[in-house]
Structure formats: structure tokens, C-alpha cells
Automatic annotation (TrEMBL):
Similarity field: Belongs to the exportin family.
Cellular component terms per the entry's GO annotation: cytoplasm; nucleus
Pfam family, one: IBN_N
GO terms, biological process: mRNA transport; protein export from nucleus; ribosomal large subunit export from nucleus; ribosomal small subunit export from nucleus
Location of region: Disordered: 1127-1153, 1263-1324, 1381-1406
Biased composition (Polar residues): 1313-1324
Organism this protein belongs to: Capsaspora owczarzaki (strain ATCC 30864)
Gene Ontology MF, one: small GTPase binding
Identification of the protein by name: Exportin-1
Biased composition (Basic and acidic residues): 1140-1151
Importin N-terminal domain residues: 44-110
Stored InterPro entries: ARM-like (IPR011989), ARM-type_fold (IPR016024), CRM1_repeat (IPR041123), Exp1_repeat_2 (IPR041235), Exportin-1/Importin-b-like (IPR013598), Importin-beta_N (IPR001494), XPO1/5 (IPR045065), XPO1_C_dom (IPR014877)
Cellular localization per UniProt: Nucleus
Keywords: mRNA transport, Nucleus, Protein transport, Transport
Amino acid sequence: MNIDQYLESGRAVLFNFDDKFDVASFDRIVDQATQSVTPYFQAAQQLVTEFVENPDSWTRVDAILSFSVNPISKFYGLNALRSMIKTRWKVLPREQCENIKKFMIDFVTKCSIDDAALIESRLYRTKLDETLVAIVKHEWPAHWPNFIEEIVGASRTNLAMCENNMIILKLLSEEVFDYSSGQITLAKAKQLKQQMCEQFTTIFELCQLVLVEANKASLIEATLGTLQSFLSWIPIGYIFETELISILLNTYFPNPLYRNLTLKCLSEIGSLDTGNQYEMTFVNMYSGVLTVILETLTPELDISEAYMNSDDDERKFVQDVALFLSSFFRQHSKVLEARPEMHELLLAGMFLVARISDVEETELFKVCLEFWNWLSHSLYVESPFGFTGGALMLNGGGFGRQGSPRRELYTQLLSRVRTIMITRMAKPEEVLIVQNDEGDYVRELTKDTDSINIYKSARETLVYLTHLDCSDTEVIMSQRLSAQVHDAGFSPELLNTLCWAIGSISGAMSEEDEKRFLVTVIRELLGLCEFKRGKENKAVIASNIMYIVGQYPRFLRAHWKFLKTVVQKLFEFMHELHEGVQDMACDTFIKIAQKCRKHFVTLQAGEETPYIDKLLAEMNLHINDLQEGQVQTFFEAVGYMIASPLDPQTRDRLIERFMLMPNNHWIEIVARVSSDISALSEPPLISQLLHVLRLNNRACLAIGHTFVSQLGKIYLDLLNIYKAVSDIINSHLRQSGDVVLTYASVNSLVKVRRESLRLIETWVARTEDPLAVRDSFVPHLLELVFLDYQQCEPSAREPEVLRLLTTIVKQVQGEMCPVILDIFPLVFECTLDMINKELTLYPELRVAFFNLLQQICEHCYPALFQIPEDQFRVVMDSLTWAMQHTMRDVADTGLLTLKDFLERVATLNDPNIVQGFFRSYYLLLLQHLFACLTNSLHAASFKMHATVLSVMFRLVFSGVIQAPLFNPAEYPEMDNPTFVKQFMQVKLQEAFPHLKLQEAFPHLAPLQIEVTVLSLSALYGDASAFKSALRDFLVQIKAFANEEDLFLEETEAMQQLEQLKKKEEQTAVLGILKPGERDDMLDMNQFEDHTLEIPSLLTFEELLRAPPLTPSSSCTEPATVRTVKPNKAYSPQDAAQRATQHEREAREQEKAQVAPLMEEYKRAMRTYEDKIEPFMNQQDQLKSTIAADQTRLAELEADDSAAALVADVRAQLHANQQRLAKVNATVKQMVAAKPKRPDVRHVRALAASKAAAAAPALQSVATMAVEQDDSDDECEEDGIPPSPMQVTSAAPARSRKRIYERDSDDEAAPSFETAQSGGSDENVTYSLSSRSLERLKEPRLATRSSSRLILPPGMTLSRANTSGVSSWLTNDMAAMQLVSTDENVSSTPKTDRRKRLALSDLSNSN
């Protein structure tokens, strides 16, 4: 028997509804459908699917359930019956419904009469119970009022039946309270919920009876599962005023057999919000639960290791523990915090969550991470700003100062959580090189993966934790970084995680603390990079350094020399051929260019010209070794620099220099093609042409409107090449057909054409002169592009043409109306001929066409009424086709376009056009709209359907449409509202093109339809009520399958509201927003003010010579002076404490007095910047507009034919000049009222006088420091290593030695630093004053420095034979550590005093 014969015989057996059903044959077909080895496997599956979907197959279910010996056959039979119950139950006669209900009750009872029956029916019992619940939803309570009493009464007679009835009750609870949305009407859902609550007493008594008296394990498990589904909605009296909690806690939770289900029930109870009621009940419940948990998860147990070695049941227990604790703490942690006697148990539970957070299980970690995010956020929100000594301390000051009892309580816990966040930090978003649909390798951000979501949450949590105590965050990160410095502890994976964590807290510290911390991190990583061997390791370290640097743009903007050095190092990396290094360099370069763009085009101190001039001069050298995609990224980065605020002449000059290389290639290509058109068939030339076009595109993307100076040079040649390439493509298509589009040569030509259009589109989207687009660009596009689009082969039509036209209409808006009449015949009709045949052909072209139609209907709709009637009908037909499209974006675009178009047409001033349009198209559109609305394929567009339908009803019932929508001769006394109601009733009972309502939904009586139509016509003004009525109608006709979500709009709106609320909260927290999400201009303006007020910025060379990080108890405290090692003569710790006491007191007093003044000033400056920025932007816009008006006026005055326009333009120019004068006056007043920087000199003078009083003590400390230098080598020989943070990371066990001095003619001469490293990789850098050089000639110091080469100021000694990643501590980085003496003296700020001890008598002590 072949397949066709098999299908024919099978259909004869299954679908012969006149004869008795052959159950045995059905079992045989089902057996073959479940055994893939049989030859009729697929044919049998087809037969079974047809049987289940047949509308009459449910009539065979009684025979299948009664006589079939195959459980799977019964499963399929129940599927058919359940489908009928959901869609056609109300169609059946009442007697037949009662018979089906009775049969199902008897069969359910038979399958659960004893344990053997339960086992026998296990494969289909769940489907059987679901089918019975489907009947209950229709029958209860109207036709089955005693259902609850019957099922509870039956449960008391038989344990097996009780077990199955528990499952039925659980399913009913879920159907009513969890899954009722979109399945039943709102009124029916409300009725079922109310009935369930009223009759719950008998159900609860049954559950309690089972839990108290039953001893059957499966029954108890079923009861606990059912009870869990009840706990979220039952009245709380059943929980807290009965023995339920006591039974769960004392009887079942200690039992390993039931602990998981019991803990789920307790989690539901613990997550309830009861206000101030039952607090002691929650306290006692938590105490009892945690005591039992800690007996299993003891404090000594390594949960992470035990979890990996345990079975599924034990792993579920750990997961349930995490869910219970996290949900309980969210609701009731403050109840425990308010009771001191519960603090120990509270912390024990939270530390248990911390231990569970160490488990390497993603889903489990996400549960814990969500809780830590909530806890850190709640602690931060309590007191975002701390106060100390009357000063407002931004970014926190260590919660020990905050006076918050909650923060004090969680001190140790939060430190543990910080460690978890740092060690478990996920990988952030990254740029990937992927191949797109066109075969090109492009760069794109990673998608919204689970790992990125974890990173976002962990980053946010760590930022909050840093605000709570940034010094502790520093300590933890510094310790872990120090561990990586040592060879034995180095791990690329751990280093990556640590650096991701360091980069994640950018902006969370104050600027001074961030500077100090970042200097230490970079210095340690530089040393590690020099010390490690192997390019793999060096590449990992270098990429992490660049990642961290890119995450701290505020630091880069504040230190120009370091920014310059980093960029130079990136240029070096661009020549390194090791895998991934060039990509890392380009990514970091564009990130820095975006955030620090202004600094590259501004003349910096110590520079002869802006850095952009040097960069452009050496650009070809930098990109010499890069691939094409990397060069394009480089060009975009430089484009962002040129786009900085500059005068037009300077910007044009820079653009000309910038595009010199691409323009030279362009000239060569144009000359070659002009002389020989066949050159366009040469792959090398096409590849070069594509590269040049993409370079222009990326540069235009970054530069914006002013790129017009470059685009104008190549525009006409660009269009000519476009036309030539298009002719070649069409020639190939006519000769060989569509297959040639798959050839590499033709595909390259298609890319050239597409890139040409994208370049124009990129500029148009960023232009500031839309009229120039219409007047100067569109005419050439009409002649060479749009006409070519109409004439070329259909398969060669480029969707990018429609995208370009869409962008033009969006930018030029109403000014495009005259041109639309010329464009319409060129692109509309030919495109519609392609997309109206099938809904699946040309998807890109289809989406682009409907987007274009949307923009035209929005901005140029008056022009549509000037086109011929047949073309206008094509437009309306296209809107109906868009509504019917199965692609949601196309359907939504069509519906939105229709809505806007209807509203705009209603506002036209010409009543003939308005009424004529509605008379011709209103009923047609209404019919098509309802056709889509009742089609389950369009369920996702329900929101737009309801919106458009309410608009159409409003147009009729509010009287906007006056013209009769009917034939007045046929209906002489009819009006539009009455006619529309009758029309809708008739159409709902007759037919739509896709759906026979009369056949499909005969249970919809005329009265029901009439009520629906009347409801919709009365509620069109209330969007929410209108959608509710429409939903109920769709549920009644069962137009949607179960999986469709009719509440998608509410869900999306709620998600958007939550995201908006979270974004507003994050904006108020420093560091929460990533560097790329912050307001660049605000940061830059703050930096500009900072540089004006403090001209002598600390250079990064001085930062690198600063002492290593020694975090104190508060991140706002200055780091202490390097601890001196013990000396045999006396205790240096005591001496140092006595010596620096007065200085510290003076510094603290200065800080306490200066801080409030400076914070008030900063706050005032932020307010000032926020107020003045809009006026500055308006000023720039008016200047540009006036310049354009003046140019246009000059042109019109020279043209005698345009005399009529001169007056209008002159008046417009005069009005703009007046507006500019007013804005200038406002800006001038605001500048005059700019906050003044407070004068703090008297405060610092007082602090200096107190510091001077400590001079004798400081002199003894100086002597001690020098003697200690002599004892360093002795300590090392005795096996006493220096502190790890005091040792150069690349040097094994050799401490850094510093001499602090004070010259007589300088406020503070710079220190010098030596950094030794063993082996042949020694690299020594110095920065010494002339007086220091003289002192080094003294015998004692010369002896100590005999092994070192002393360099005069301005000279550097470093290895010269290094390159690429291995040269991190040489060349430019060595120069970064070396600074001229004069520069140091002039640029060292007074705030760096603590880094240089004022030792006036150092030479005498030496």
C-alpha cells in the first residue's frame, strides 16, 4: 500500500461519521503516528492532525475513551473534545451539554477510583482534568451551582479520588486567577473569582483535613501543590488565623520528602503584603524556617561545591531557599530590623543568600542578584547624600558617617556583596564582527542576551554599593588587582572580570577619589603588562587597560596629556597584528573620540597647534595596517572630532584635509570610468569604489550637515556612477535573468548602488537646510535615480531608493508637496505591481514602501488629492493591503498611516474633498478593518485596530461626516449613525471576505451582536472601555487562539512605564548611567569651568608618581603618607602619628569649611548650565537661520523675476534678527548672574598656619624617612617584604623609594621616583629638579644610586627595540611617567600637598 492509498483508507475510517467508529483502526493509526520507524509515520501523523482539527471529531470521543486500549488515542480524543468545548459549547443543545458533562464526570471518576486507575490513566489524566475544567468554566455557577460541594464531597470518600480532585481544583484556580485574561469575558472572570472566594471555605477545610490526617505521600504532595496555587488570592484570614502556618512549619517542612513543596507554600505566604498586621507571625515563621534551613545548609558547608555534587531534589531545595529568603526580605526585612533580638537571624539569612550567590548557576544567581539590587537600592534611597560637619558630601562618604542604622547593620554583609558583584561581574556589551545579509562584515553590538542583562543588573548594584561605601569597594578591587600582579595568582578570566567591575563604577565616585583610584589601577596594570610574558597575556592586559580608560571619559577630559598618550598608544596598537588588538584599538578610539571630541580640536596648553592637525597629517600612517572595516571605524571617530563646535571655515578646512585620501581615490576612479565604462566590471576597482563610498558614509554619519562641502564635490559624479552601474545590472538581468543577482560580480555592483544611496540618505537625515535638499538634490535624483527605478527590471529595483525618498519627505515635510506629484508616477505604481501579488515577495521593498506611504500621508497629504482618481484609489488600496499584512511592522505601519490620514482629512478646509472621500471609502475601510480585527493572524495589532476603529466611529457619531454613507433614495429617513450601526450588525451576521460569521459563530444571537455594536458606538470616546468591549466581543466569537494576548498593549505600556520610571531614578544616581548614556555637553561644560578656575591641572605624569592607593575608612579621606618600616631606635608609627596630628587636624578643618562652599558653588553652576544651555542652542540656530536668509535675500535681489519674494524674505530676516537680539540680551543677563567661585584663601591660610606649627615634628619624621631608606635593603635581606601595594608590580620584591624635598624658591618641588625591575627588561624613568641633581652628587646618596643612571631634566631612558603590545611601559608610556621639572612646578595643584611632605631641613638631616 502506497502513501496515497494509506491516506485514502485512513480518511475513510476516521471521517465516515454515518457509521460506527472503528476504534481499533484509530488505535493502529495512532501507533503508527508515534513510531518513527514505520513507513507510514508522516502519513499517520497527518491523519491524526486532520482528525483532531475536524469540527465533528468530538462526536467520536465517547467511543475512543470507552473502548480504546491506547492511552495516546485517548489523549488525541480529549484534544478534539476540548477544542469543541472552548469554541462551540454554547452552540450545543442544553441536553447534549448535560450528557457530555455527565459522561466526563463518570469517566474522571473511573480513572481515579483507586491507585491502579490513577497509574493506568497517568498519560492522559492531565488532559482529562483540563477538559473537565473547560466544561466547569462554562457551566459553573449558572448550570452547575453545586460543583464545589460535589467535588469536595467526592474527595472525602476516596483517597485516590481526593488526589485527582486536588489537581482539578488547582487547574481551576489557575484558569480563573492566572490565565483568564483573553480567554473569558471580563464579567465572566469577575463572576468566577467571586464565586471561588465565596465557596472556598469547604475547599480549605478539605485541604486542612488532608494535611492533618492523611499519610499518603502522593496525596499530600498534590494538596501542597494545590494549596500553593491558592495562597496568592485567598482571604488572608485563612492563612494567619488558622493553624495552617504551624502545620506547614512544624509537620511538613522538616520532612525532606515534602520540604520543597512546603517551602514554596511558605514563600507565597512570606511574599504577602499585609501592612502592619501579623508582624509577629512573620517573625516567628522566619525564625522557624531559617532554623530548619541552617540545619541542612550549615555555616561550614561550601554551598557552591555541594550544589554541583548534589541531585536535582537538593538543588531545587537551594533554589527554593533563595526564593523564600529574597521574597521574604523584600516584604518584611524592616520588621526584623526593628527588633534587635532578630538581627542575628536576619544577618544569618542574608549571609546565606550571599553564600548561595557563589553557586555557578545562572538562574540561581539571577534570583540572588535581583535581591541584592533591591537591597542596595533601598539603602541608597534612604539617604542619597550624607552630611558631615554641615557639608553636603556627594557620592556618599562612607555609611559610617551617614548615621543610618540600616547601613550600620549591614556593614559586613555589604562588603561581602561587593566581593560577589566584583567576582561575578558578567561580560558587558561588546562590538562583534558579523556578516550581514549582503555578505559584508560589519560591526554591531551584541544582542540583548542573558549575560548582558546580568551585567546591567550587577553593574547597577555595584554602583549603589559604591555610593554606600566607596572606600570598601576600592579596597576589595585593589586587593584583587594586587593578587593578579603576582605571577601565581594571575588569571586572564579573573582579570577580565575585575576590569569589567572597575569599568562599571565609572562616575560613582567623586572626581578626586576616582582620579586617585584610577591612577593606581592603571599603574598596576602597566606594571603587570611589562612583567607578564607572552603576547596572549599582554593582549589581555592591554585590552583591559583600554577598556577601563574608555569607561572613564571624565578622567580623560581632565588630563589632556594622558588622553594624548592613550591615543598615541592606540595608534601603535593599530599596527599590532595580534588577533583582536586592532579591533580593540579602533573600538576604544571611537569611544574616546565621541566623549572627548572637543579636546582634539582645541589648542591645549603646551601645544603649538590643535591635536587634530597632527592627527590628519599622520592619518595615513595610522591606518596603514588596518583592514577596510577598521579604517571606516577610524574615519567615523575622526569625524566626531571634526563635528565639535568650530567656526565654519575651520571645519571646512579640516574636512578637506580629512577627506584628501578618499577624494584622491575618487578622482582616479571617476577618471578611469569616464575613459572606459567597462572598468566597472573589474573587481579591484569595484572594491576600491565601495571602500571610498563607505568612508564618506561613515564620515558623514559623524560630521552631519556640514559634510555638504564634501558631498557637493562628488554628488553629480556619484549619481552618474549610480546610473552607469544600474544600466550594467539591468543589462545582465535582461540577458540571463534573476539568477545573475547571485553572482559575485553583479552583487558587488548592487552594493555600489546601495552605498551611493545610503551616503545621500545619511546626509539628508542630518541636514539643517531641508529646502536645499528639495531645490538642489531632488531634481538630480528625479532625473537619474527615481526615473531609473521605474525603468529598471523589477528584481533590480533597490529598496534603498524608497528609504531615501522616505527620509527626504520626513526632512522636507510639507515643502515636498509640489515634488510628490512628479515622484508619484515614478515609484508608486511600479512598486505596487510588485507587492500586490503575494504577501511574501520582496519583503524589504514592501516595508520601505509602506514607510514611505506613512510619511507622505503625514506630511504631504494635500498633494494626494491632486493626483488622478485611479492613482488615489491605488493609495487607498495599498493601505488596506498593509492592514492585511501578516508582518506586524507592516500592519502597524498601515494602521497608523490610516489613522493619521483619516484625522488629517477630517481637518481639511474643503468640505467637498472631505465628504467625497468619506462617501467613497468609509464603509470599505470599515469592512476591511473588521476583517483584520476578527482574524487571529492579526491579534498582535489589536491595539491599533481598536484605535483606528474608535477614530472611525468618532467621525460618524460626532457628526464630522455629513455626507450620507448610504443611498438617500433607498433610505429616505436614515442618518449616518443609525446606518453604520445597522451596517455593522448585518455584516457581522453575514460574511467578511475571510470569515463566514453566520456559519462559524451561529451562537451569536442577533441580540448579542446588537449589544456589541451599541456598546462600541457609545464608548468610542473612552479608549479603555472601548477596548474592553471589543475584547469581550472577540472572546465571545473565539476569534483568537489561546496563545494570543489581547492585553498586549497594557503589558507593553506597563513595561514602558516601569522602564521610564527606572530611567528617571537612575539619572539621579551618579554612575548608574554608562559613560555612553550620559550628557556629554554637561560633562564638558563642567570641565571647561574647571579648567578656567584652576589653570594648573595635575598632569598624569605627576599622578603616576603619586603614592599607591591606601584606602581609608572613607573614600573622601586623603590617603595617608607611606608607612615607614620599624627602626631599631624608636617606634616610627608613634612618631609619625605625633608628627602629622596637627597637619591632619588643620586639613580636616579646612576640608569641613571649604566643602560646603564648594558644593554650593557646584550646585549653583549645574543650575546655571541647565538654564543657559537652551538659550545658547537657540542662539546658534538663529545665527544659522539669519545667515541662510541673508544669502537667499542676496540671490533674490539679484534676480529681477523674484522681486515679489524679496519683501517676504526681508521681513523674515528682520524678525529673526529681533529674536536673536532678545536671546542675546537674555544670555548676557544670565552670564552676568553666573555664580562666582567662593574665596577660600582665608580658610587655607589658617590651615597652613596650623600645619606650620607641626614643623619640628615633621623634621624628625623626615630624618626617619631617610634612615628608613637605608634600612630597606636590610629588611629585604632579613626576609621582611614591603607592602604589596608599595612594590612596583613588575619588580620582584623591590620597594619604591621616594625623596620628598622642598626647594627654597618653589612652593613644592616635584618628587622623583625610581622603579627597578630585574633582568634585561629594566626600565628607569626620573623627574628631578636641578637642586635634586646636585644633592644626588653627595657621597651618601651617590652610593645609594650607584647602580642607576641619573638623567638631566627632560631626558628619558627606555628600551628602543620594542613594539606592539609588549611596549606598554616604553616609549610613550615612559614619556607619560617623565615630565619636565618646570612643568611640574607650574602645574602641581595645591590640593596635592599631602603627597609631598614639606621638609624644609631635609638636606641637613641627610
